[in-house]
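We were asked to recover a plausible sequence for a given structure. The inputs and outputs are reproduced exactly as logged, with field labels preserved.

PROBLEM: sequence recovery
POSITIONS: 518
GIVEN STRUCTURE:
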């Protein structure tokens, strides 16, 4: 996912007297403070403004973090880990950063105030994170496509997003429409089965089939093809390059090359159509004008596609991408679809009833490009949350699962000062619910104490402030989001707490010179 750089972010000024731990922890806190107020259904938004004064409103943690030009190396490390969390799970980036900040804050207190060696703290963090993840895995519950829990997972994931209530039914419809066609090696992979596009001129809906944000190569080509025999072409469709003509100064040679260009173009088209194809999806970098003209004259439906779309189209139609002319002679290269046509009013192309795997397209609308982009991100987050939940199970949401781990983690018996390191993890586990409640306008600490005194899986209703069973309330989170966020936070904390000095290149050069003189 690409993001613009919204200004230059700098951590608080570094006092030369601060040691590495102080400087690095300050950088982490500065990054965490940027996103912590976005956590939860009632989290606030950020207005991102780039150097060209383009504006974008978002509360998506990874979008905000990737938009920062972090100067401090530790701050950049946090952004990189958050990006990895997004790539692996698709959610939980803000959770990971908030927990990392709490771990480092508590770890710094143990090192600076109590004199605990960083190695002992780190060992305690490792054991605490490992133990916490193991408990979460044991307590997680499996769900299926038809369970109401799947709807609750999507609703919880989108509760803090723009138009989350409107997008939730759309996402659930897409998930259930594609169903078990999204299973690969016994795991759901909805990235291969659900396309999400954003269109400001179309309404929200789910379409069975593929929608390409494209137009035919030429308006004189057929508007519609029924019983489409589909070829995906990646082969060279420009037999004579323009540069070759420019390099030649002799008229006779140029004329010969032009004639050769027409002949070769016709031969290529003849060989393509000899396969029986009537629909050509072209991913070639260049297409000769004569090739295009021959397609028009033969009433072929041709459209350019991107390399990213090839995989979807191949799975949906069953077509095998053609890279060489010789590939045209291989059996089974064509795919099929009942119908392909262009919607001229909206500037899109529909493929219906492909002979391969079922694929659905989710259209996400928006009044402006910015709102459609934010809603598009939200829809993808909902799909990712559902995928993680179906593959790995679910736990109580709203910070309840983490909060009720605390006493179980404290019961872990470690040697000596490693036991103190567990406090770092328990502080992080408590921070999620506290931050969600603070963002909802409550006294976070007070409400966390009330939730702690309740049974497992109980949390706080952010509307009433009362303690509730999160399972009965339908506030659920994917297990994988929790465990990955906890592991990412632990990695950040361990890295920062083990650094005892920040060395710039010039520092190393001076040190080398000094040692040489000695």
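RECOVERED SEQUENCE:
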């Amino acid at each position: 996912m690409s993001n613009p750089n919204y200004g230059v972010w700098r951590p608080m000024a570094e006092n030369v007297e601060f040691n590495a731990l102080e400087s690095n922890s300050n950088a982490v806190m500065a990054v965490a403070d940027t996103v912590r107020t976005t956590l939860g259904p009632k989290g606030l938004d950020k207005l991102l403004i780039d150097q060209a004064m383009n504006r974008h409103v978002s509360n998506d943690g990874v979008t905000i973090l990737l938009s920062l030009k972090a100067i401090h190396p530790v701050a950049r490390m946090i952004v990189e880990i958050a990006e990895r969390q997004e790539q692996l799970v698709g959610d939980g980036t803000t959770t990971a950063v908030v927990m990392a900040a709490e771990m480092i804050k508590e770890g710094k207190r143990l090192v600076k105030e109590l004199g605990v060696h960083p190695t002992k703290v780190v060992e305690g963090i490792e054991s605490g994170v490992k133990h916490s993840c193991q408990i979460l895995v044991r307590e997680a519950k499996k769900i299926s496509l038809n369970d109401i829990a799947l709807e609750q997972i999507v609703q919880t994931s989108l509760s803090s997003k723009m138009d989350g209530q409107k997008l939730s039914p759309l996402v659930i419809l897409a998930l259930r429409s594609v169903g078990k066609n999204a299973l690969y090696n016994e795991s759901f992979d909805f990235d291969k089965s659900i396309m999400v596009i954003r269109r400001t001129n179309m309404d929200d809906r789910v379409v069975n089939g593929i929608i390409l944000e494209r137009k035919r190569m030429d308006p004189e080509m057929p508007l519609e093809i029924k019983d489409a025999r589909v070829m995906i072409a990646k082969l060279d469709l420009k037999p004579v390059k323009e540069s070759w003509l420019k390099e030649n100064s002799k008229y006779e040679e140029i004329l010969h090359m032009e004639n050769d260009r027409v002949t070769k173009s016709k031969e290529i088209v003849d060989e393509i159509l000899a396969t029986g194809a009537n629909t050509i999806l072209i991913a070639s970098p260049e297409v000769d004008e004569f090739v295009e003209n021959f397609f028009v004259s033969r009433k072929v439906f041709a459209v350019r596609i991107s390399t990213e779309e090839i995989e979807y189209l191949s799975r949906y139609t069953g077509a095998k991408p053609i890279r060489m002319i010789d590939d045209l002679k291989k059996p089974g290269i064509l795919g099929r679809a009942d119908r392909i046509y262009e919607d001229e009013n909206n500037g899109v192309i529909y493929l219906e009833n492909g002979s391969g795997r079922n694929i659905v397209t989710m259209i996400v609308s928006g009044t402006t490009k910015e709102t459609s982009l934010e809603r598009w991100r939200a829809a993808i987050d909902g799909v990712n949350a559902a995928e993680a939940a179906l593959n790995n199970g679910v736990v109580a949401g709203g910070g309840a699962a983490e909060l009720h781990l605390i006493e179980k983690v404290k019961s872990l018996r470690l040697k000596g000062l490693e036991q103190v390191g567990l406090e770092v993890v328990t502080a992080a586990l408590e921070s999620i619910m506290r931050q969600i409640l603070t963002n909802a306008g409550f006294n976070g600490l007070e409400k966390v104490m009330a939730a702690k005194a309740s049974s497992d899986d109980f949390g706080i209703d952010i509307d009433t402030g009362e303690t509730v069973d999160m399972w009965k309330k339908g506030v659920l989170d994917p297990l994988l989001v929790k465990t990955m966020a906890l592991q990412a936070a632990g990695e950040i904390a361990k890295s920062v707490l083990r650094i005892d000095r920040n060395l710039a290149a010039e520092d190393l050069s001076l040190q080398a010179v000094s040692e040489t003189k000695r």
